[in-house]
Amino acid sequence: MGAAAVPALAQTGGAKNIVIASSNGERACAKAMEILRTGGDTLDAVVAGVNINEEDPADDSVGYGGLPNEEGVVELDACVMHGPTRRAGSVASIRGIKTPSKIAKLIMEQTDHIMLVGDNALRFAKAFGFKEENLLTEKSRLAWLVWKQSLRDPRGHNNWTDGLDAPHKQGAGPGAALHERFPGVDPELLAYAWDRAIHPPTGTINCLALNTKGEMSGTTTTSGLAWKIPGRVGDSPIIGAGCYVDQEVGAAGSTGRGEENIRVAGAHTIVENMRHGMSPKDAVMDCLKRVSRNYDHDKKRLAQFDINFYALRKDGVYAGGSLWSGQMSRGKFSPRKFAVNDGGASRLENCVYLYERS
Ligand code: GLY
Asked: Residue 305's domain spans which residues?
């Protein structure tokens, strides 16, 4: 099918203000909607939305308080795409700046380049007055330390835990050992740190917006895979993987294990699927099937990660989809959701999914 397969606005009642995001994006959607309602630009809207997560130390997958790399240093990735001008900006492996989405936008607006990385991206941000800060919180430092101490060499040894000359043996099980090592730390916080150590997350926020003029923009921002090798770049800053916008068709983005998304160029694939007539839901499902195919649909290997895609078509039809129906965290199952705001309060809706998590 050709481009004509995308429904014309006249057939669907026309564009409207609508914002969708990953499940951590209810506040981001609300903020972006507030800006759309006053006639603000779609990119300004989504960036202001995700800035809430970037600046929130409680969101350990994004910006300030994001979980660090294997050396305990927070490294951030982000990208933006502005539909009306078809421009893009991106930053990868930047340290010391809480809001990498703003830097990606700055690169889009103030340079003839698309992407800056590492120390040079930080230098660029500082040239524009951004302040370098320590992005590690006490909570993320604790999670990192617990992860460091959980590592073992083939002899079962780790230099970061008490050694041969320790006065007494650690208690039974990781829980008791942790409490011995971190006396006085809240048990709930230690349980969180242990969960993060053994299940390194690849959280992120993606946010996509459409306004009544039919303009669209998107952004994705992340601290990436926890405990990564310094310099590892995920999908979030890759235009066409972490985010893609063509307002003649729609916008898409992703969260979850970036390595899988890069291999299917997920956001671009989804937009192209919609261009060729698929609904947002089918476009997302097709992309998930491509991820599955890369593992010959071997559910045992696929069960070791999750990946989520979000699609917003130019007529306001949207979908969120995930590889697995939900996730287990600290013994509790939660279904995969995504955030939507179409003018009222933000809400979470269920993702469609490829496989049921048993
Ligand atoms: N999707 C975030 C990452 O893998 O870095």
From this structure: 13-135+200-355
